[in-house]
Structures are given as C-alpha cells and as structure tokens.
Amino acid sequence: MWGSCVQMRLKILSYNIHKGFDWNNRNYGLQEMKDLIKSTDAEIVFLQEVVGENKIFKDKGLIDSQFEFLADEVWPHFSYAKNALYDHGHHGNLIMSKYPIESFENVNLSTNNYEKRGMLVCKIKIPVTEDNPEEKSLMAACLHLNLLHSGRKIQYQKIKNYIEENGHGGKTPVIIAGDFNDWNQKSCSVFEEKMGMLEVHKAINGNFARTFPANVPILCLDRIYVKNLEVIHSNVVFYDQHLSDHLPIFCEVDIQ
To answer: Which CATH code of 2.30.110.10, 3.20.20.140, 3.40.50.10240, 3.60.10.10 fits the domain covering 8-255?
Structure first.
C-alpha cells in the first residue's frame, strides 16, 4: 500500500486559540482567527482550547459553539472532543479536515483532578486522485498536555502505548499535534528517540518553534510530530494582531 512512489502534499496547522481571546483575555477575535487559519490553506487543522458550549459566552452574545463556526464552509469534516467541563460549559480539542474522517476517539490523558486532558484521534481518509491512485488513511491526534513535567511524562507513555497499539505495525502515517506545554523540551526523549517520529519545525529549522507568549514568543510549547511522512517545510505563523496567547505552527508534508 505504501510502496508507491506517488506523493501527495498535505498542509497542516496546529493552533491553541485560547477560547477565542487574545493573550490578556480582553479582545475576542474568533472571526479573525478563522480568517488566519483559512489563509494558510491547511487541509488538516489541529486546534486546542476550543469552546464547545459556554453559557457566559452566549449571554454576552459571543459564539460559544466554536467548532461549528470554525469548520463551517471550509472544512466539511471535523471532530470535537470536550475535555475541560465546568458548570457553564466545556472546551477541548478540535480536528478539522478537508478529507473524510472515518473514525474518531477521545483518549483520556488526565493524570490529576485539576487538569482534564485528552487526545482526540481521528482516522482520516486521503481520497483517490489521478496523481494519488491508491486509497490511504492516516492517524491524526490532537492534544493539550499537562503544565507540569511530572504529569507530561505519564502522558508521553500513554500516547506511545496508544500509537504502538493502533498504528498497524508502525506503517500508518501519523500526525500528533497540539500544545505540549513542553517548556523544558523533554518530549523528544519519547517521541523522537523511542517512537521514531520527527518534529516538523526542528527537522527543517534545527530547533523547536517559539510560539508562546504570542506577543513575545520565548517558549517552545507547540509541536507537530509526524511519522511515515516526509517533512517539506515548517514555520511559525506570525501576524500583526495577537489573536491568541499562542502562535500557530504550520507545515507541509508528503504522503506516499
């Protein structure tokens, strides 16, 4: 299935949208965020801190079903998984795709009672075209990990176990993207050294992408890890107006 030399290029974006607010929670810019995401022409989009329901937002006249608004008209296939639940609503991870989502699962990554974390996993079908004559599917996982390294170490192992158990012998193309909160840059010890994955920005530019805080990006919190895909390009998406507290990370990969 994967022996063909025919390649298809995919554009991928990962972005923590901070529930639609800027870094200091003063300005709400969900439409501007959607415009920014659209401008990249990404076929598969991984978003974190997406509001699924929020009564306070609704009372203020703000969009609270953010996943439907963001995916509307551009990405016909999407899957939202709520992780953080509270009295007035919930938020979580979102994958939007221009290609069909065949199945989805929300994997519980919570390690304590204060941080409800999950990994949304979708099986995405890449359509048959003249240049891409064989049916292909890839595994796409969107996550938002713990603030403390002790919790992330447990989560890294849970993710590794899941991918190994569901990756069809290591042959399936895999994309794991999101807010890793990996300020100490320790995720590579598992994802690169033990799982054989590539972090796209590091593979192309020699270092992890600085994405946080958006106004003065110092920390490398956001990642896109891939396996069985060829990394062609990766960059941080900069813009004049700081729409979120994170900057998006973008890449292009070839799938054979």
So the answer is: 3.60.10.10
